Please model this.
Amino acid sequence: MNASPTNQVPHVVIVGGGFGGLETAQRLRKSNVRVTIVDRHNYHLFQPLLYQVATGGLSPANIATPLRSIVRKQTNCDVLLAEVTDFDVAGQRLIFADGELNYDHLVLAAGATHSYFGHDEWQEFAPGLKSIGDAAEIRRRIYLAFEAAERETDSARRKARLTFVIVGGGPTGVELAGALSEIAHHTLKHDFRHIKPEEARIMIVEAAPHVLAHYPEDLCKRAADKIREFGIEVHTHTKVTEITADAVHLSGPDGDTVVATMTVLWGAGVKANPLGQKLASAIGIDTDRGGRLPVNSSCQIEGQDRIFVIGDIASFTDSDGKSLPGLASVAIQQGRYVAKVISRLASGQSIDEPFQYTDRGTMATIGRAAAVALIGNRRFDGLFAWLLWLFVHLMLIVQFQNRLLILVQWAWNYVTFNRSNRIITGEQPAQLVSPTNERTSRRHAG
Amino acid sequence: MNASPTNQVPHVVIVGGGFGGLETAQRLRKSNVRVTIVDRHNYHLFQPLLYQVATGGLSPANIATPLRSIVRKQTNCDVLLAEVTDFDVAGQRLIFADGELNYDHLVLAAGATHSYFGHDEWQEFAPGLKSIGDAAEIRRRIYLAFEAAERETDSARRKARLTFVIVGGGPTGVELAGALSEIAHHTLKHDFRHIKPEEARIMIVEAAPHVLAHYPEDLCKRAADKIREFGIEVHTHTKVTEITADAVHLSGPDGDTVVATMTVLWGAGVKANPLGQKLASAIGIDTDRGGRLPVNSSCQIEGQDRIFVIGDIASFTDSDGKSLPGLASVAIQQGRYVAKVISRLASGQSIDEPFQYTDRGTMATIGRAAAVALIGNRRFDGLFAWLLWLFVHLMLIVQFQNRLLILVQWAWNYVTFNRSNRIITGEQPAQLVSPTNERTSRRHAG
Model:
């Protein structure tokens, strides 16, 4: 089974089955190459909806589609479940912990991970949201916080349990905060007997002057108003100076404050996948500050015409000198371009044109029937923007079934404020509340 | 908020939010008692469909419903997320790692766990199926096995990777085997390039003369035929003598054999939750061999009229001297009975009648359009039995939304043979295949 004729044609190895990598693979469907997608997970993750998993609105499987089933019909495409540990550039090989793989063309589309700005010790107290594992952990912390508060008798500790601090006012932070507000005010409204979930304190902490700072100021302002309407505190111009197991230290306009909380979520910074650094050292170049690999106008590393880098792990500077943002649309368009280039090279042609990013607009959801959208110069917010957001994202999801299930689930959740996926999995803390806690006995008193 | 009048009425504490415990709580809705359900999970798990999660047919949230949302409207019912560590019988108290709770009436409905018949060292190699964690782990092993086989070049090791041994021919074992066969022959059919998933070897190993031995012999035989039709090997009269990381040792009619496999699933034995033993020692009585607590005709521990024990953790011997099986229907009927008894006691009445189990029939599914059902003396198999099984189980699921989603998901899966939930989560093994593996490089040769 290794003697298939495809062994004779150029071998394109794509590292990462995200938006960019998958687009590249699928666009090579008709090309005279054989494609291998290497990913350490067996699924493509639709990250824009990951916050829904983290807040119990969707199941992981709703937004994760097995890579094999996506490319099932693409006979020139192979999927390899493996973790890349290093690059042998001269030998045109990928190194795995348990094997290796030769390539003729390499497409690195390994994406990004969290950045704690040199404070990696914060990670355990403030999980970020990039993987399904992250989402499960965040969901666990959110719902455990309410459970712990329900059993807590010390009012200060109960208040801390019901305080949620989201670091970073970008799309992820705003989405998480919006969902948290819905959980507190609607989903859990009648679930508890000893706490009022709606008394939960939800804070967004943002160093910049605005939340959703990538959007025009008027949209930012309207978004901020909407966020406050949802009962969320917005603290701009505010830096996080320390995060511990039970507190966040802030430095803002009104000086330094310490907020007692056991639930901090990280939506602040991203950096490129460490594979970027690995490849950079293998070649002998430098990454940018975000660990991203600088690429030329054809998404190649200068002087390495067999190596393409796309998406969040690439630093692409467009014609007017500004670096492209870490958006799915950038990765997808770069994937499409790289597939075209590789097809040309495979058929003996040369690269005919540089990559050109077309901004088709961006949107961010805030919560129930609230979002902001920027399409060209047109700006939308409120219900229309939200419906737009909903439509676009549903249409983008890879697999029909998931789209249908998500639609059913969302329709149901929207009507009922229900979040059926709020089950707490993963290991339980042995002690949910401090041993000195009195509720459980006191409740029986009298 | 602790001064509510409900503090004056008898406090019924139910340990375990499974079928029995939940039924007890809900049946006490109108009684003049206050109820607290204590569970270490925040959800009620619909165990009959757990095998669907383990095989990627359903998401955990489809079969797990938050306990709080189930009893939301039952104002006299409280839910406590806590793990019981011990019992203070004299003091009528439950002891938690992080608190304690007094009761007037205790209902122990903590269910069962796996029994490895004194070979607990087998657990890591042969996970059982009782919790969502178990299901996730089994799903991970099943789909990782195919991924590893795809990358394996050594034919013997590849064969071992594609060998699945299910220990125990009871309902769980048969359900898992049937689902595995569907995965191998349909779901993954076109997913791989280097292996044929349908070549997977699926074995059921059963010490008894028949699979589904609880059913009449003719049903067993027809079930066994159906199982073989699905391409599953049925080894009855066969004992497991040893399980290691890469092999299962069997002792059967044709002597002793060693089967090379990396995926063994345990469906053989159950024993009562260890809390049964804890309570037995606290009282100073003995459990039965299965660790179950002997109860009298009113589901009480003899001489402990404040302690009721129901479901899989109870050993109830009925009027004609035989012990009731570990079925959901037994737990539910006992829960209903105990609720009635406690209501009477709470209103100053005495227990008027012993518990009487009514067998409404049992059913087990084998796979696609195949099941067996025993209702009174009527026996069904094939498609009708399966539709019956499907209908009964869908109707039994607690929450409407889940029922709807499961229906959509099953309809879709049935038509497409798809299993959308086959994503592999949890920590990945660093080495999926042996480092000496050649496929990854060899594939590029020539």
